[in-house]
What we know:
Shape: elongated
Number of domains: 2
Largest sheet: 4 strands, mixed
Radius of gyration: 27 Å
CATH class of the largest domain: Alpha Beta
Helix content: 40-55%
Order of helices and strands: HHEHEHEEEHHEH
Distance between the termini: 22 Å
Strand order of the largest sheet: 1-2-3-4
Number of strands: 6
Strand content: 5-15%
Amino acid sequence: MSRRIVGLLITLVLAAGGGALAWWLATSGITPDLPVTERARAAAAGLGDDGHVYVDPSATGTFTDADLARLDAAAAASDPQAFLVVWPASREAGYGSPSDVLHQIGDLTGRPGLYVQVVPGADLFDTDVGIAGEYLSIYSAVGDEAETETPALLRLIDENDGREYEVGEDTSSNYWGGTGGMIAAGLTIGGLGGVGAGLLGLAGWALVRRRRAAA
């Protein structure tokens, strides 16, 4: 077998190995999408095409009808629009964090905006879904008021109104340009590293053969 063929085989094997290693390193930290929960489906169905406040049956009575009407009207008039999901916290809900389920709800409704989880008497959590928006701080928005009461929620909605945003979520936070860019960069680096290692191996192998021939 000629030196060129042997060298080519060594280079290809090392390049493939480098690419495989790069793929594993690039994808090992990527968390697969969680299955859509029944909670998310119920909330999305409750919001429908024009609703802005969903109250889980177990949280019925948290707000008066008048408060719900005020919240719904304010959330609808806000730009970007806001969506409130009112329910008690649950460790058996089937999602990793409030952000997970709020994104599931937003994906199901197909309505971009600010999604807010309201846990009565406890706390709030908000996240942008389907938009890349200017940063919004719940804590500065609600001030010293009880977080989950109507006045605080109205202040949060008012703070949201007028934020600069673009439709479409920002996936460029990763240095390489998101998950796809990270994988592509990993494969490129791994492949080039494998080729480089192959060329070095070929040079070393040729040097050994030359020394043996000289001896």
